[in-house]
Amino acid sequence: ECPGMLDLKGKAKWEAWNLKKGLSKEDAMNAYISKARAMVEKYGI
């Protein structure tokens, strides 16, 4: 169930998860790794 209009943080999180609906576990892991590598390259963490 979608959070109310006044719960901005909750609504943003719900919408982000809803966009990933149907993504396989392996695809999600690969996307996370790609994003993490890009951040390491950009910020040198």
From TrEMBL:
Record-linked InterPro entries: Acyl-CoA-binding_protein, Acyl-CoA-binding_sf, FERM/acyl-CoA-bd_prot_sf
GO biological process annotation, one example: fatty acid metabolic process
Location of the ACB domain: 1-45
KW Ribosomal protein (keyword) present: no
Keywords noted in UniProt: Lipid-binding
Molecular functions per Gene Ontology: fatty-acyl-CoA binding
Key word Nuclease present: no
Gene3D superfamilies: 1.20.80.10
UniProt xrefs under PANTHER family: ACYL-COA-BINDING DOMAIN-CONTAINING PROTEIN 7, ACYL-COA-BINDING PROTEIN, ACBP
Entry protein name: ACBP protein
